[in-house]
Amino acid sequence: MLRLKLPTDPRWANIAEGNLEEILTDHAWCEIKAASNAMMLINLLPEFTEITTELTSIAKEELDHFEQVHEIIKSRGWVLGRERKDSYVNDLFKFMKPGNRKHLIVERMLFAAMIEARSCERFKVLSDNIKDEELAVFYRELMISEANHYTSFLQFAHELAEEGYDVKKRWEEWLEFEAKVIASYGKSETIHG
C-alpha cells in the first residue's frame, strides 16, 4: 500500500530498542511536528472547509499521539528530552518544487504524505521486531493511524491539484527521491534516522 521503494532493514529496530528513551523522545517530537504541520496547512487553505476539518482532526490525533508517547516516557521514569533535528525531513523538504499557491499546497501535501508513509513503515518495523511487548502493541496501533494520515494527504493533493498537475507522476518522483534519501539513514535510534 505504501509503495516505498526502499524498505527499512529490520535490524534498525534493534538499534532503536538499544536506546528506547531516545527513540521515544524523538518520536514525541515527531508527533509535535506533525501536529504543527497540519495546523500550518490549515493556515494555507482555510477556504477548503472539508480539508480544514480533516486537518483539524489530524492535528488533534497527532497531539494525542504525543501525549501517549509522553505518558510512556513518564511511566518508565524518563523525562522528555529536547527537540531533535530531523535531517530526513529536512532532506525531503528540499525536494518541494516552487510554484503558485495551489502548486505549493499540493507539494506540501505530498511532502506530508511521504513523511507519514515512512513513519507508518517504521512503526511496522518496530511493532514486528522489538521485544518490548508494550511498545510492540503501541506501534502497531500507531501504524494504522499513520497509514490513514498518509492516504488523507495524498487524497488532499489530488483534490487540490490544478489542471495539468499530474499528482501520480509527481508522487512517483517523491517515492524515487525518498528512496535515495532514506538509503543513508537507518543507523540511529530516531524514527527516521
From TrEMBL:
InterPro entries hit by this protein: Ferritin-like, Ferritin-like_SF, tRNA-Hydrxlase_MiaE
Gene Ontology molecular function, alphabetical: tRNA 2-(methylsulfanyl)-N(6)-isopentenyladenosine(37) hydroxylase activity
Biological processes, Gene Ontology terms: tRNA modification
Domain of life: Bacteria
Pfam families, per database record: MiaE
PANTHER family, sorted: TRNA 2-(METHYLSULFANYL)-N(6)-ISOPENTENYLADENOSINE(37) HYDROXYLASE, TRNA-(MS[2]IO[6]A)-HYDROXYLASE
Protein name: tRNA-(Ms[2]io[6]A)-hydroxylase
Species annotation: Flavobacterium aquaticum
Lineage: Bacteria, Pseudomonadati, Bacteroidota, Flavobacteriia, Flavobacteriales
